[in-house]
Design brief:
221 residues, alpha+beta, minor pseudopilin epsh fold, 5-stranded antiparallel beta sheet, 2 helices, 12 strands, 26% helix
Length: 221
């Protein structure tokens, strides 16, 4: 019995196989559109967190100053400089005088404003009593806040006059050009992007707040 080995001849590839130029252009166009959608969505999500990030950053500086004031038994100064978009923590040295030492510094976002938001022509009220502290005055471009050895907080006037009268503050944070209408809708972003940080002078305690278009809600942190 004779065994025959059969070798198959490879078929010639059709010269017309593969993708046409039109098909390639369609695929590329779809990829460009999908990339644009992803990038736009990412930018929107990033914007929704920018006020949170800024408020949390300032809050962490306050808490660090508070802890250092108690542990070092000497005054600590927080400087919020919106002109140069910086925040600094300085150890003031032994009272009443001493060498100032910069302990920590951070960069503030240029896409977040710390001015009091205005809703339908009316300034947004601070969180509800008893946390409705005076709005921090940043009209000059910067503000100095002093944490004393007992943890209490005062402003530059109280510190420099040695009166050490406690001072409480409310700080607002919202994306730049955030506008809220009376109905709770906005022309550019939702009102729930607004955040607030309260600082209670007599004890140095802090709280983070989220605005839900109608009221401030205390965020546990």
């Amino acid at each position: 019995m004779v065994l025959k080995t059969v070798f198959s001849t490879p078929r010639c590839r059709n010269s017309q196989s593969g993708f046409s130029m039109v098909e390639l252009m369609v695929v590329v166009s779809i990829m460009v559109i999908m990339t644009g959608i992803v990038v736009f969505s990412f930018r929107g999500n990033k914007r929704s967190y920018v006020a949170d990030d800024e408020a949390t950053k300032v809050l962490s500086f306050f808490r660090e100053a508070y802890q250092r004031a108690l542990s070092q038994r000497q005054a600590q100064r927080i400087t919020i400089d919106r002109t140069n978009n910086l925040i600094r923590l300085a150890d003031m040295g032994l009272l009443p005088g001493g060498d100032e030492t910069i302990i920590n510094r951070g960069i503030l976002s240029t896409t977040v404003t710390m001015t009091q938001p205005v809703i339908s022509g009316t300034p947004l009220s601070p969180p509800p009593a008893p946390y409705n502290y005076s709005v921090a005055n940043l009209s000059s471009g910067s503000i100095d806040i002093y944490f004393l050895a007992d943890g209490s907080v005062t402003n530059a006037t109280g510190f420099n006059n040695s009166s050490f009268a406690p001072a409480s503050f409310t700080f607002f944070f919202s994306p730049s050009q955030e506008t809220v209408t009376q109905s709770g809708q906005t022309s550019s972003n939702s009102g729930n992007l607004i955040r607030a940080v309260t600082l209670f002078g007599p004890t140095g305690s802090t709280r983070l707040w989220r605005f839900d278009r109608t009221k401030f809600i205390w965020e546990l942190n």
